[in-house]
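Below is our example:
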Amino acid sequence: MLLLILKIIAFIILIICLGFIAYWAVAVIKGDAVMKVLKTKKTPLKVETMDRHHVTLSYTIPIKNVGKQLGTVMDAFVRIYLPFEQYDDARVTGHLDDFDVPRHDDYWQAYIVEPGKEKRFYITLDIDGKGTSILGDLENLPEFGMDIIYQIVARSDYYYAKTRIVITREEVQNALYEYTTEAGK
């Protein structure tokens, strides 16, 4: 009798294990959402507004679902890495929005990205100068890093990922030059 009960318990455990293996095999075959920020498709910096002490620069960068399932971008934000010990002539802050539905309250509205499709992040950099001229304040602006941090929810557990973008002095100067050239016409 005890042997029969042990065989039944072993059989039930075997069935449960086979069920887990079958579940994971189907999950591997069906895949998951995999989001990738396409750094090579980043647009050049563009001046949105500018006055003597402030400039707002912007660019867009796509995020693409290269996986096999729907994925939801639940949260997204940017973090600027420009400590005042490295550069203290201006304060740089960043904001991230959905390009198609920009918001001005720093609220991230989640959206679903279908497999093979992409959405665009719209990123603005607000630079507040500390001197008498924003152009003078930006003359010694160093290259700085900026992380795009985003939370993805799909079949698997949610996760945060990040992509590092480097903003160079030349990019900023080119955007300022184009803007001031157009304004002078």
Notes: Residues 88 and 149 are 25 Å apart (CA to CA). The longest helix spans residues 2-30. The beta strands are 35-37, 46-50, 54-65, 71-81, 90-98, 111-113, 118-129, 144-153, 159-167.
